[in-house]
From TrEMBL:
Coiled coil feature spans: none
UniProt KW keywords: Oxidoreductase
One Pfam family, short name: F420_oxidored
Pyrroline-5-carboxylate reductase catalytic N-terminal domain sequence ranges: 3-123
EC number: 1.6.99.-
Biological process annotations from GO: copper ion import; NADPH regeneration
Organism the protein comes from: Candidatus Methanofastidiosum methylothiophilum
Protein name per its UniProtKB record: F420-dependent NADP reductase
Length: 246
């Protein structure tokens, strides 16, 4: 079991990851600038987990004893961003690019040695009033590298989960058909996050190498957004790499 803070956990991508990892048995701390908002989101996510489990097991929610016996309680709680960060071993950053720098500044105190940061951030042009189908190029090269430039050296930064659909993550009754490219940090740190990717049914984790490869991976999100629009795929497309050795 991992202790995972999701900063931006009230948004679509963060909520979807929280649901999947809570179902896998991990302890989730939803972070928000406003604690009350985080607590409300955490309660809603727990309700979704219970409702889905009851549906899959064909248990009526009114049968309280059966629910208690067969449906595990999701470990999801809400805190302000700093407190969520302090409680976690893994800190997932899932905020709009325009909020990235102030968000990192607000949690820096909690980024102690040995913690792993996972960047789900994509520098979409919406941050400067542009379209979601294009990106801007940070001076550092990628959003993940912006984070690396701001955090202590003893905190490892990983880039992952940008290209998996938030809607498909949130639908617990279906598997996610998508590859998850994990890059950055040490090989051991990548392995930890790749195991988290495998906890999402249907997802496959791929070692994407050093963090600079986030410069290639993050723009895929803008490409997928444009393709979703053209092909009218409301729930969102995924990506798969073929002929990959097992």
């Amino acid at each position: 079991m991992k202790k995972i803070a999701i900063i931006g956990g009230t948004g679509g991508q963060g909520s979807g990851l929280a649901l999947r990892w809570a179902r896998a048995g991990h302890e989730i701390f939803i972070g928000s600038r406003e604690k009350n908002k985080a607590c409300t989101s955490a309660d809603n996510l727990k309700t979704i987990c219970i409702d889905t489990a009851c549906s899959l097991l064909e248990i009526e929610k009114t049968d309280v004893e059966a629910v208690k016996e067969k449906v595990p309680e999701a470990k999801i709680s809400g805190f302000d961003n700093l407190e969520a960060t302090k409680r976690a071993d893994i800190v997932v950053i899932s905020v709009p690019y325009s909020h990235l720098i102030p968000t990192i500044a607000s949690i820096k105190e909690g980024l102690t040695e040995g913690k792993i940061i996972v960047s789900v951030v994509v520098p979409l042009s919406t941050a400067v009033g542009g379209k979601a189908t294009t990106i801007i190029s940070p001076w550092e090269g990628s959003a993940a590298e912006v984070i690396q430039s701001l955090v202590p050296e003893n905190v490892q930064v990983i880039s992952a989960f940008q290209n998996v659909s938030a809607d498909r993550l949130s639908n617990l009754e279906k598997d996610v058909d998508c590859d998850i490219i994990v890059c950055g940090g040490s090989k051991d740190a990548r392995k930890i996050i790749m195991e988290l990717a495998k906890d999402i049914p249907g997802a496959r984790a791929i070692d994407g190498g050093p963090l600079q490869n986030a410069r290639l991976i993050e723009p895929i999100t803008a490409l997928l957004i444009g393709m979703n629009i053209r092909y009218k795929v409301k729930e969102g497309m995924g990506i798969r790499f073929t002929y990959l050795p097992e």
